[in-house]
UniProtKB/TrEMBL annotation, chains A, B:
Heterotetramer of two alpha and two beta chains. Pfam families: ArgJ (PF01960). It catalyses: N(2)-acetyl-L-ornithine + L-glutamate = N-acetyl-L-glutamate + L-ornithine; L-glutamate + acetyl-CoA = N-acetyl-L-glutamate + CoA + H(+). SUPFAM superfamilies: DmpA/ArgJ-like. It comes from Acetoanaerobium noterae. The record marks 189-190 as: Cleavage. Belongs to the ArgJ family. Substrate binds at residues 153, 179, 190, 276, 403, 408. Keywords: Acyltransferase, Amino-acid biosynthesis, Arginine biosynthesis, Autocatalytic cleavage, Cytoplasm, Multifunctional enzyme, Transferase. This is Arginine biosynthesis bifunctional protein ArgJ. One of its GO terms (molecular function) is L-glutamate N-acetyltransferase activity. It is found in: Cytoplasm. The gene is argJ. It is an enzyme of class 2 (transferase). It comes from the Bacteria.
């Protein structure tokens, strides 16, 4: 297996990709608010979108454009989500695609569009259109950082990464950037992730890989259980690394898959770690379940329980709340076999539940472990061999403070 | 239609019912912690229980005893939930039934058992057993209030009610009591409701009525989305009012059903209103849906969204968060037809969303309306004729404070 290495970079690190981020005028702060990601040749692509039925106009448009899996550019604006904007929203999203296509001399159906920010306001199309022209002129192989800045809203940190892995003795690069807020602004949409790669990869396999990875990464994080109107994860692969086509039968496919999984897991975890108000980064591992579905249900239920989240904020080892949240998750398990352990940063492990009942664990040791920032809750069903991991955060005073106050 | 009237009373107000509440010693505070409800004759009965797979021992026992629908006594202890207590928990629950049966000279399978309080501790059976004897001696037609005291944990207010309605020119009485905490104590179970009536009622119809009413009342309240290990709603009907048997064809059945619904809705709302930390009582009405299922999904989703709940605490009219929570609820609706209004105590109505987009509503008026304690969110799907109502509360600083602190 060829190990991947992390390099300094982002979405335009893979060969044949350019990117840019500029200020169009939508954000009053003067910060970047419009980004472009461009491949010199049409790239095999795929994207997954929010399942929210009140999805935004750019989601509707992009769902249609991604169908043939050929995309050459992604345009993203931040500061305005173009959601709940009716027929005007749809025509604005379409105009964003056509203006981008014309600036880059490509076909409009090879452009996907994403918007993130306030819900319910019409886009200021004059600013957006001149911004797109400006962003097209600014496209550069060194544009990753500016592009990453252009898609964030209330994020405290930029989320950008690039890794390299050798396939068929060719260097294959994967770049990525993400945006994830804690929805700290009223009516803010949540997350967005763009992955680029110069890998030569089979179209169907790319689609499979993104679906599979999204299930294991972005779909396993939770900040507050609210699924936004604008979520999108998109990948573009332009083949410029000239490796033999990657598919399920390629001898080095697992090396690529591992690198791809790492990039997406890194970005997903960065979103959770950046949650304003959060004082803890929580990993939940549910292991030895009969089915993957049950492992996932239990892991997500623990991470979305307000009672578990407040007790983690309070650094209390309330095993009863954890067990209760597994109980109502819909997961199939045998409570009499269940084990729950707390694992600290240094892998110190304290088993708090055995055979579905409390162990005689040391309350002081548990209290000390729960003072750490990174905490793992390990749940062992002891009935099968399926495992699932999910990530989340605690529920703090600051979460309530931030989300109950008005930001104009 | 015969209108019901509310009288001063509770579970032993209906003819032929006695009740009591005493201090057995489980609660350190010296407050009542064990209650008995007894019918002089076996009563047609039914009960619904938590769907949590990690259900408590008394739930397992009571599920079995309720099958034949003949119950003569309910014994409830508070302070210890007898949950996650393994084989000992089951034999303790069974012993509670046999000791009660022997004190009352009835059959053990005609007793149901309920426990509420801390999870994971073994019951102190010596205290419980002598407590049951004491409670049997204290049984009285005036015991409703003491019984209601014996089942609460951290509730601020007693929840007890009785109503009377005339059926076949006979006075039929329905009594009830409930317990509902905000799960403010670590590992606390949530809710419990006991209804008694002297109505003469068909066994199958009684079962139907409780199932139907529970779906519309207890199953439509949410405080924090956590389903406890011990929830139970039980009804006993002993026929002592001597009306003609109530069933679907009885000419006055709707009068009884209305009174029965009122009692259960009153107790369900009392649980939500008693939420420590809550500053708002929220009613959500979803109307004109194509299906009842979609109306219920949307109503519950709004009430369990942390983002909606924090904005209500902050008295902000964040219509985007409400629309977003409907979008991910799984409900079928047409976003372009959707209307959302806020309704205040005095029925003042402000329409904030029309055709899926924000109206130009007055922010100051909305702010003023949201300062009231009782707020209704009215969602009109405008596609059908099915309606659903749900009740909940806001998410406040005090909720986080209470649930992140340890109470020994």
């Amino acid at each position: 297996m060829n190990k991947y290495i992390v390099i300094d970079g982002g979405v335009s690190s893979p060969k044949g990709f350019l990117s840019s981020g500029i200020h169009s005028g939508v954000k009053k702060s003067g910060k970047n608010d419009l980004s472009l990601v461009y491949s010199e040749v049409p790239a095999y692509s795929w994207a997954m979108f929010t399942t929210n039925k009140a999805c935004a106009a750019p989601v509707t448009l992009s769902k249609s454009h991604i169908q043939d899996q050929n995309i050459q550019a992604i345009v993203i604006n931040s500061g305005n989500a173009n959601a709940c904007t009716g027929q005007k929203g749809l025509s604005d999203a379409y105009e964003m695609a056509t203006v981008t296509a014309s600036a880059l001399n490509i076909a409009p159906q090879n452009v996907i569009v994403s918007s993130t920010g306030l819900i319910g306001l019409p886009l200021e199309m004059d600013k957006i259109k001149s911004g797109i022209t400006k962003a097209a002129e600014a496209l550069s192989a060194n544009g990753s950082k500016e592009a990453a800045k252009g898609i964030i809203t209330t994020d405290a940190h930029l989320k950008t990464i690039a890794v390299q892995v050798t396939i068929d003795n060719k260097v294959v690069t994967i770049g990525g950037m993400a945006k994830g807020s804690r929805m700290i602004h009223p009516q803010m949409a949540t997350m967005l992730s763009i992955i680029t790669t110069d890998a030569n990869i089979d179209k169907a396999y790319l689609k499979y890989l993104l679906n599979d990875t999204t299930e294991k990464t972005y779909n396993m994080i939770s900040i507050d259980g609210d699924t936004s109107t604008n979520d999108m994860v998109a990948v573009m692969a332009n083949g410029k690394a000239c490796n033999n086509e990657l598919n399920a039968n390629h001898p080095e496919v697992q090396s690529f898959a591992n690198a791809f999984a790492f990039v997406n897991e890194y970005l997903a975890k960065s979103i959770v770690a950046d949650g304003e108000g959060a004082t803890k980064f929580i990993e939940v591992q549910v292991v030895n379940s009969n089915t993957l579905a049950s492992a996932k249900l239990a892991a997500k239920s623990i991470l979305t329980s307000n009672l578990v989240k407040t007790s983690l904020f309070g650094e209390e080892s309330n095993w009863g709340r954890i067990l209760c949240s597994i109980g109502y998750s819909g997961a199939q398990f045998d409570v009499d076999k269940l084990e729950i352990s707390l694992v600290g940063d240094n892998k110190e492990t304290i088993k708090i539940v055995e055979n579905g009942q409390s162990t005689i664990f040391c309350k002081e040791s548990a209290k000390k472990l729960l003072k750490e920032r990174n905490i793992t809750i390990l749940v062992d069903f002891k009935t099968g061999s399926q495992n699932s991991i999910a990530w989340g955060c605690d529920l703090s005073h600051d979460y309530v403070k931030i989300n109950s106050s008005h930001i104009s």
